[in-house]
Design a protein that fits this description.
Layout (H helix, E strand, L loop, with lengths): L11 H12 L4 E4 L1 H7 L8 E4 L3 H7 L3 E5 L4 E6 L2 E7 L1 E3 L11 E3 L3 H6 L9 E3 L4 E3 L4 H7 L1 E2 L5 H7 L2 H12 L3 E2 L1 H7 L3 H5 L3 H11 L6 H10 L1 H5 L1 H4 L14 H11 L4 H9 L4 H4 L1 E3 L4 E3 L3 H15 L4 H12 L11 H11 L4 H13 L6 H19 L13 H8 L5 H16 L6 H10 L2 H9 L6
Parallel strand pairs: 2-5, 10-11
Antiparallel strand pairs: 1-2, 1-8, 3-4, 4-5, 6-7, 8-9, 12-13
Helix pairs in contact: 7-10, 7-11, 14-15, 14-20, 15-18, 17-18, 19-21, 20-21, 23-25
This protein binds adenosine-5'-triphosphate and magnesium ion (MG).
Amino acid sequence: MSRTLRRDQIPEPVVEIVQKLRDAGFRAWVVGGCLRDLLLGKEVSDWDIATSALPKDVKGVFRRVIPTGIEHGTVTVLYAGGAYELTTLRGEGAYSDGRRPDEVFFVDDIGEDLARRDFTVNAIAFDPTEGILVDPYGGLEDLDRRVIRAVGEPAERFGEDGLRVLRAARFVATLEFELDPATEAAIGGQLDTFAKVSKERVRDEWLKTMKAKRPSRAFEAMRRTGILGVTCPTLLEQVGCEQNQWHNHDVWGHTMETLDASDGKAIDRIAALLHDIGKPETRAHSDKTNDWTFYNHERVGAKMADRWLRKYRFSNEERTDVVHLIRHHLICYSPKWSDAAVRRFLRRVGADHVGRLLALGRADAIGKGRPVDEEMKALAELEGRIEAVLAAGAALSTRDLLVNGKDVMERLGVPGGPVIGRVLGALLDQVTEDPALNDRDRLLAIIDDLGPAELRALQESREGKP
Ligand code: ATP
Ligand code: MG
């Protein structure tokens, strides 16, 4: 790894912004996570600049300046087609609530600015116009050693801002670094501060963590340090929770391996993380098989996940998707399934969720920690059969039927009411068994043939009634 930076490694517009500030009599540095990512050869998403110029001075230098965080001295400069955050160099007052500095005062010294940053690898600054690199805390060396180490006294830094412990765990996963032992040891004593962090910020960190190749690195760090016990104690109950003969791991080990094997959107990895959250509570010993059972864990787990996702302010769509995936994650496919069984499965899961569920199923199989060729083959077979069902245009909801509610009302001579939906549901059940029945004349004939006893049964039936 290169221990120096050159001007030509910094995008030209960023260099120009620094130069323009200098020409106006100010100092400016490229600073923080962007240099870390650049030095690691990763793609840099945001270039941040620290400057001695106050926001009002910046407005005098650039034409398009948006006051994005004026109280923290941050403005966004639109320049050469890009957006760049410029923050006035700052020191900070005391943090009395563990969340926000009580006062921000602007200073004219990059050293003080770097001192308030969280980890050494994030506390590097570079002036590309002069080629000067400022690294007072050994950030470059820690990049080489692949270590996350707090700037200054770890306990103090974690006590100032509770989010930092979670950022530390996230970087362990996204950068594939280790926690410096003294930094890790300080986390346990600062969990009260962490507990005050808003649920939204914790949620956002968890979602960012899911971008890592192996998010389990972060969750193992959270388990070791006690962070997980604050955010999701029910996951901790998986540790040491022994499973049945089909698994090589306890539930926690299985969850971690499933999580790493999962991919797709961050929210699908949240589903992988939570998919067996119901196992510890439902575990029971069966004398018959002399093994553990987890009867109904997918239902119990779906409810638990729903509560947790509400608490952590996930969007309604994210929450219902995750709950749905957990609720149906026991696919239990067998080649003996009839085509009608494949269609019933597809109706339960929904065509728009089935791809995500199969992906979770594959990760879940890999998570068993033993050879799973057979299970993978079965899932591939199921996937092929699902594709065939979809290609054949099978009816999966009452909307796909070739009759509608109006037809039902006319044929039955009733004005409407819940019975209409139930008749359509009964027709869909028949069409699921035999797709050839989805023919307008045949469906109308079935409606005409409904006898008084059948209609009464449909009238009285209620969803959820046994
Ligand atoms: P990422 O962009 O992947 O989230 P990052 O480290 O760049 O990681 P940002 O939120 O973009 O994080 O913050 C930019 C820089 O600001 C960081 O590199 C760090 O120097 C500083 N920083 C961010 N959050 C904190 C914090 N909670 N405490 C101290 N310094 C922070
Ligand atoms: Mg960043």
